[in-house]
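Example A, followed by Example B.
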Amino acid sequence: MPIRVLLVDDEPMFLEALTALLDRDERVQIVGAADTSLRAIELADAQHPDVALVDLAMPGMNGFELTKKLLANEPALRVLAVSGLSNEGAVSLALEAGASAFLLKGGLYDEVGDAIVAAAAPHHH
């Protein structure tokens, strides 16, 4: 069973690159890509993903608030917080909001498949 993944980012280029990358990873199945927080909530409700990659710098409802909302609706969901910037504050806020891990966009392409699998590990025996 592939891990069902929801991608959330307001940059179309990033979503495209990530989708192309993960499409080649047979461990992962992308069930939705959202470019707004509201769309992310709709897709999570409809698709029940195992893991959501959430950009922290979403416009409107930011990634911290979105993470809390997604987890309130889907307690079994694992959220991977994604950011272009590394700062201690963002990391601890993301983890406080309920994110399982924090990924930097810069190094993401090498490790994202493994990070998703690691996050979903409790679900996949």
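Example B, a separate protein, is given below in the same form.
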Amino acid sequence: MYQYRQILVRMRQGDSDRDIARSKTMGRKKIAQVRETAIERGWLRTDFVLPDDTVLAAVLARKETLSPKCISTLEPWRDQITKWHAARIRGKTIHATLVRNHGYTGSYSSVHRFLCQLIRLDTPDVPLRLTFKPAEACQVDFGAGPLITDVHTGEIFKTWFFVLTLCWSRHQYAEFVRDQSIATWLGCHRRAFEWFGGTVSRIIIDNAKCAITKACVHEPTVQRAYAECAEGYGFKLDPCPPRDPQKKGIVESGVKYIKHSFLPLREFRDLADANRQLHAWIMDEAGNRVHGTTREVPLNRYAEVEKGLLKALPDAPPEPAVWAKVKVHGDTHVQFDWNYYSVPFRLVGLELWLKATGSMVTLYQEHEAVATHVRATGKGHRCSVTDHLPPEAQAWQMQSTKWCLRRAKEIGPSCYAVVHAMFADRVLIRMRAVQGVLRLKQKYGAIRLEAACSRANHYGTPGYKVIKTILEKGLDQQALLAGFDALAATYTEGGRFCRNSPTIQ
């Protein structure tokens, strides 16, 4: 409308169509049409006030009509192309499919123009830019760090960097770590809060497994250890919807800023050196730049306004702990972090909650603590408590060789002699047999067991089966055979039925 108005002004000043066309504002044919309309409506009279833009638009705006020759050759496949366009299929792929499957003979340009019409008809996806008050919220994320070679050990390891950015001031905390475990996640939060000297009311996070165990738009499930951390520091969690990182675009930009401005052309001796350089860069360069969005210096905004509004840290910060669901194995142990911890034998086969701090491991059945251990370091260690075993297993562990000899001596000298003789076996470890002999006291009493052992010793047959048979048949109550020694001597000296050998001359 501005061009139309300028042309009408020049016409009222007496300029010809040729002079107006030289300005390349409009062609002579179109200018002639405008002059004809202006003359009909009296707009060229100097005493007539030009109408406003609304009237000019109603009269002079072109009414676009589609003639039969402007109908696209793709109209027969409009519905199908619309579905493909909604599914984000590329134009080249759509053209190739039409040619291959539908015998289309038109060019790709026709497909491109048709898709442009569909794009103009689409409802634009307009994002809502979030605004925050000082100390209201922060955003947290991980980024992929460099490979670091430790100059002391020669180890090459992969790293990530943790970033926590205050949404209002854009001041940030960052730290290089070696993993994204729950313990690392909680430790980074604690050091970040100590770096800022306080906490915010809300933390916007992604759906990392160390924070969210089940991602969901409406009701996500928070990692139990992270929930305890939030409760201890007094902040609330605000997980982003799945596959929607724009909801935490502030920290996403912070991650990119570290990748592109800090990491290139730097060398690190080890992880500690990388963190020293990163913290110095945040305080010297990143914190003192003019931020592209706020147009202010992040460190100044933080120091002058936001720092004083942060929530105070608790007097006793919550101890970082890891929670995990574990199953009790048949040996009364559970496995956590490649180590094994015992629980009472009655819980075999059940699922328990395990809470691991830096120094202790506690196991819970629902809300009741059932076992506590000092946390093992390294891998493959077994932390066992004797009281967690069944009574039979406890008895087995307690009944050592010395214990058996001591119990046998209490029963009597014959029992002691039997046990001593059984332990003297050069081939077998006869611990179970000895324990079996000692357990016979519970059924038959110490007096009968001592008599049975005396009988077994007399006949030279100390053993569990012999003593048990003697007790079952009541032979311990019978007198020993008086002629046993003479009879044994007869067989030993040469045999009862053996004739004397003739004398050889």
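On Example B: The longest strand covers residues 137-149.
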